[in-house]
From TrEMBL:
ATP binds at R10, E31, E79, K97, D98. GO terms for cellular component: plasma membrane. Belongs to the bacterial diacylglycerol kinase family. It is a multi-pass membrane protein. Substrate binds at R10, E72. One of its GO terms (biological process) is phospholipid biosynthetic process. Mn(2+), Zn(2+), Cd(2+) and Co(2+) support activity to lesser extents. The active site is at E72. This is Diacylglycerol kinase family protein. GO terms for molecular function: ATP binding; kinase activity; metal ion binding. Its cofactor is Mg(2+). Keywords: ATP-binding, Cell membrane, Kinase, Lipid biosynthesis, Lipid metabolism, Magnesium, Membrane, Metal-binding, Nucleotide-binding, Phospholipid biosynthesis, Phospholipid metabolism, Transferase, Transmembrane, Transmembrane helix.
Length: 129
């Protein structure tokens, strides 16, 4: 591979990261639900530090936060595509938007349950001291 090709490949890798970060910024700035997920993530970090959770528990929290925020970004993309290709009311547009929103809800409920399993016993053990 020539130096020019290598440099072009590096440039396109950098620009694809740049576009991905732009996508995250758009999601954070435009989606109310994304702000809620980020607040929940901050709470998880604060609780994790306060309760000195284990490495495994940190890994689980990181996976769950990533799963919810990733799902919300995909939902944001689906909404944008639907609004672009189907500005009028259409049953399939409703199915696309509602199932994408449902996917976020499933992820968020799973994260809430697992978060509860990790943190609720720790909160109770402090309250009952
Ligand atoms: N083109 C459409 N055809 C049929 N139903 C639609 C269409 N666009 C939206 N809807 C329905 O209206 C609901 C709300 O859509 P809207 O675009 O106002 O909010 P949203 O961006 O999907 O929600 P949020 O941003 O709060 O996650 C959708 O979940 C869907 O049920």
């Amino acid at each position: 591979m020539s130096i020019k090709q290598k440099s072009h490949q590096r440039q396109s890798l950098i620009s694809s990261f740049k576009h991905a970060f732009e996508g995250i910024a758009v999601g954070v700035l435009n989606e109310r639900n994304m702000k809620i997920h980020l607040c929940a993530m901050c709470l998880v970090i604060l609780f994790g530090i306060e309760f000195k959770i284990s490495i495994i528990e940190w890994c689980i929290c990181v996976i769950l936060c990533g799963m919810v925020i990733g799902a919300e970004l995909v939902n944001c993309a689906v909404e944008a595509i639907v609004d672009m290709v189907m500005p009028d009311i259409h049953p399939n547009a409703k199915v696309a938007k509602d199932t994408a929103a449902g996917a976020v809800l499933v992820c968020a409920i799973s994260a809430l349950i697992v978060g509860g399993i990790i943190f609720v016993p720790k909160i109770f053990s402090i309250l009952l001291k």
